[in-house]
Structure formats: structure tokens, C-alpha cells
Design goal:
Length: 131
Amino acid sequence: MMESKAQEIILDCEIKNIEKGSLKNLSIVKMSCNDIDVNFDIIDNINIFKENEKVKMLLSKSKPIYTSNDFCAHGYIVTELKDTSITADARYTMIISLFGLLVKISNKDSLLRLFQFHVMDHIYFCVKKNT
């Protein structure tokens, strides 16, 4: 399910996989949010997630309310790439930099157009545990 308010997106997701990143003490969390795939970097000592866990992902232009059970960070939308090499269908990947940690959100449609965001928008990215 996707909820959309003014400049705020909430997606129901499931954490599919958590794998070691290429840097020390860094993991990559891979989530599926229906047709949208999300991969994000997280430092191991603040990783609060487990595989197969149900979560909500939030993208917002304004600072959201969050608790110690959530991972929230802010940064900037860096770019959106279109990849046609994988299949006949194009896939778009929006990249957000959380001051070093990266978030990659992929979908068959342009996420910038779909969510009405722009490159260099300041954005909050949260993954909240379902309670």
C-alpha cells in the first residue's frame, strides 16, 4: 500500500535481505515495497532490523515524528537513473545520499515524477517498525 500526502510518501515494505556492504561495519538492507525495491546502507551498530520484518518506509520533505524503534536520516536526492539494460522494460532508480549512506529506490515508473520530488530536494528517509 502507498499513502501519499503533500510531499510525503508512506510505503508498506518487507525486509527481504540484509547483507554485508563493501566497507567495514556497513550493511545493505534490501526491502520490497510491492512493485518498488529499496536498498539502503546502514551502519552495523545502529541496525535495528531483521530479515522478513514488516516495516513502513517514509519519504518526506518535512521532519517526521519518529521513535528509537525507527531509523530516520536526512539528506538529498542526488539523481534518478533509467536502466533499460536489464529487461525490455525500463527501470528507474532514484538515489538519495544521507551524507554518505546511500538509498536506492527502484520502480518501473519515474519516482521523481510519481512522488513530485526533484534532484537536490532535501528529504527525510525513515524506516519504521510496524507496531
